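ok so for the tutorial part 2 we go from a plain amino acid sequence to predicted structure tokens. step 1 is just haveing the sequence, like this:
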Amino acid sequence: MMGIIGREFRDGNLVSVYSVMSIASGVGAFIGPGATGVAMDITKHGLPYFAAFACALFVVLPILRTKGA
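step 2 — the prediction. this is what the tokens look like for a chain of 69 residues:
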């Protein structure tokens, strides 16, 4: 990912992209464990359900993005 970003962006844009990536990583690190804990409290198999949901997002969101473009 860092190589692709370095190839596509330069100067101020590169700094902006890296700052947005760090913010997104921080938000994910903050929300992910809590959401996983809630899923585990709701059902006995919450962790695999949450992992399947997260993996499905990585499949569905790019498909929706390419259809909208």
